[in-house]
Amino acid sequence: MEYLNAFLCGGALCLIGQVLIDRTALTPARILVCYVTAGVVLGGLGLYEPLVRWAGAGATVPLTGFGYLLSAGVRKAVAEQGLLGALTGGLTAAAGGVTAAVFFGYLIALLFRARPK
Q: Which pTM value belongs to this model?
């Protein structure tokens, strides 16, 4: 059942993004920013946590999950450090994922050569 929930949630988020690309004048970059911002806002309001519990990776892997991760990091850091945590919590929470993305992107760039189409 966990796989089905993850598939339904992730698929719904992708469907919404595709509809926005096809039916609006929004660029993909703006849609991505909207997804991250929606994750931050919904996470900050506590509305994204039930979705994460229900859908698991279907809610945490898409860009809304990155926004949720940032908001959860800020909330935790503010509880531990006070107002300074609002500035450092999101970066601390996302540091592992961002570091892995940069490292593996660099590794792939070293191993493979880009070719023009």
A: 0.81
